[in-house]
Model the fold of this input.
Amino acid sequence: AMDEVFGSDYAKSLASDLVVGALGGRTAMEALDGGAAPRDVWEELCEAMDVPEHRRYAHRDRRRTAP
Done:
């Protein structure tokens, strides 16, 4: 999902460099390593980056309609 929304290189940078207050002042990778639920991390990262709701789960919609 991160690669689809942010692009591969930028997604890697965000996951390891962006400190998100709602994740306890941790990066996404630190939060995941600390046991946070991936969906919660994704939601907080999207909030921090102002990702519109309709783009957050677009990859799931495509899987459902794929033959």
In short: The radius of gyration is 12 Å. Confidence is low (pLDDT under 50) at residues 62-67. DSSP finds six helices and no strands in the chain. The CA atoms of residues 22 and 44 lie 6 Å apart.
